[in-house]
Amino acid sequence: MPDRTGLPRRAVLPALVALSALAACGTRPHTPAAALTIACGEPGGFYRQFGDLLAKRLVTDGVAGAAHPIVTAGSFDNLDRLGHGRAMLALSQLDAAREAATGAAALGRVYANYLHCAVRRDSRARRLADLAGAAVSLGPPGAGVALTAERVLAAAGLDASAGFTPQRLDLSSAVAALEHREIGALMWSGGLPTGPLLELDRRIGLRLLDLADAAAALRSRFGPLHESAVIPAQAYPGSPRVTTVAVANLLLCRPDLPDGLASDIVGVLVRDAADLIPNPALGIQFLDPNTLIGTFPVRLHPGAAARYRRIHG
Questions:
Q1: 135 and 66 share a domain?
Q2: Rounded CA gap, 239 and 210, in Å?
Q3: The CATH number of the domain where 127 resides is what?
Q4: CA distances from 177 to 57, 63, 107 (A)
Q5: What is the pLDDT of residue 279?
Q6: Alpha carbons 114 and 211: distance in angstroms, whole number
Q7: How many domains, in total, are found in the chain?
Q8: Based on the domain organization, do 253 and 240 belong to the same domain?
């Protein structure tokens, strides 16, 4: 599933072997950090899975003596923790990072989040407009999915006047609510496939609504913050191919992170890319020096920028 800015997991892995050797040249780690905290996301989501993998590699590669992934509500929660010194690293959707404008620096663009609008397979809803009058989970307070979901629903003309009822549920609560018919749909922004949704699909059968029209509207209004992307058929068994909205995920850090440490973390992203991709992962990954640097409008940390310049020669 290629797009203009990244590669699917099956395509990116062969290229990483050569890149890891390049990233290792002349890059002996600086004095390791005693400990790094990584603000991630909800259990079952790719933020937490990626954070776990990154923490392991940071310690194994001697970049940190310890690394601690933190369970959070998602992007806005992570940005708040970063801004208040309760995390040194954080994951965030690009649109949320721009909206929050916290002054965080970027270490790299790591992969894409895919917006899911999931309904029960026996639901009558076939398009977004059919959710008028329904209760829809937009994710918990502090999650970046709500920002993207609200923009998508607005593009479809769904607001208070249409009787649309937003619910602010975390993923596990939203899964239970959809299973018990307490909501009509759940919206979730994450990797492909997302484990809790895969399990729910196996229990009751899910259908993903096509968001092609909304994706085009968001691209027109917000530019490259929102990309049109494809969720392939059978990403969730029985689910057809649909178009959706993809948002890049950034690995962010506090702006006062030492340059040497920022450089060493970039080295891990490039050198150990194959070990940082959750499995299974059908979606687009950006763990390549040519795409990791695409963090605009969030600026790269100076130490990260210097490392990418050395890698590119």
A1: no
A2: 11
A3: 3.40.190.10
A4: 36, 42, 37
A5: 77
A6: 11
A7: 2
A8: no
* Predicted confidence (pLDDT) at residue 313 exceeds the cutoff of 80: no
Residue 143 · residue 73 · CB < 8 Å: yes
Of 247, 270, 294, the residue that ends a domain is 247
CA–CA distance, 214 with 154 (Å, rounded to integer): 9
* Structure confidence by residue, pLDDT tens digits, 70-83: 999 999 999 999 99
pLDDT mean over 252-280: 94
Stretch 214-224: mean pLDDT: 92
23 and 102: one domain?
yes
Residue 237, domain extent: 114-247
Radius of gyration of the chain (CA): 19
Between CA 158 and CA 143 the distance in angstroms is 20
For residue 277, give both structure tokens. Answer: 């991709």
Strands (E) located in the chain = 7-8, 36-39, 67-70, 89-93, 105-120, 135-137, 165-167, 185-190, 206-208, 227-231, 242-253, 284-285
pLDDT at res. 164 = 78
